[in-house]
Amino acid sequence: MLLACIAGSLALRHIPGVQWVWWPLMLLSTLVHELGHGLAAVIVGGDFVSLQMYADGSGVAATAHSGSRSAGAIIAAGGLVGPASVACGLFLAARTERRARIAMGVLAGVLVAVTMLVVRNLFGVAFVLAFSGLLVAIVQFGSTWVARFGLVFLAVQLALSVFSRGDYLFTPVARTGAGNMPSDVAQIADAFLLPYWVWGGLCGLFSVAVLVLGIRLFLRPMKAMTWPG
């Protein structure tokens, strides 16, 4: 299942007529990236104010926090490691068909809540609702195997986005649909002094480590249990 998802994902860009599938998958990684910023803001005691997504694959998350340098850096890093962290969670949830079905339903519910609470532009609302609707349809009408395969496929997309969009880890400027602004690594560098590319490298290494953990957990054999009676 894992190998099929990886092979299919890598082939998407090269099969005539289906390259368009890559676009919503790119938007998915953007969504998770921006949600990572928002969740990090909540963790440090701040607020997730709003989220906007754009058709070019960019996004902007507005957050509020205490103003401390460390809080700002953590929020910036949350987006960078978000896709890998979520991929790890999806791999873990996909270990069994029943768990995968539940996780997909929970994910759909979370996205609907996110839409109502923080998504603030029409394109973002349309995309998040469409994606959550797809997840609901899989849970409602698909088999448990389909739900499990879908969860692994999503995890692989997020994992691959760590590498396909890895250049963002080493740029000081973020070019978004809302205009140019300091990149996440530039904001971390502003808080902790070291060059932005150092923080980009550290976030990249952390993401790879989390992905390796998630794949190992997914591939780990299930233990057989016997019970008296």
What does this structure look like?
This protein is mainly alpha-helical and 229 residues long. It has one domain. It has eight helices and four strands; from the N terminus they run ααββααααββαα. The protein has a two-stranded antiparallel ribbon with strand order 1-2. Helix 2 (22-43) packs across helix 6, helix 3 packs antiparallel against helix 6 (144-164) and helix 7 packs across helix 8.
- How many individual helices? 8
Q: How are strands sequenced across the largest beta sheet? A: 1-2
Question: Structural class from helices and strands?
Answer: mainly alpha
What is the beta-strand fraction?
5-15%
Q: Point out poorly predicted stretches.
A: none
Query: What is the global morphology?
Result: globular
Helix content: 55-70%
Would you summarize the structure shown here?
This protein is mainly alpha-helical and 229 residues long. The protein has helices spanning 2-11, 22-43, 69-93, 97-117, 122-141, 144-164, 184-192, 196-219, and strands spanning 47-53, 59-64, 173-176, 179-182.
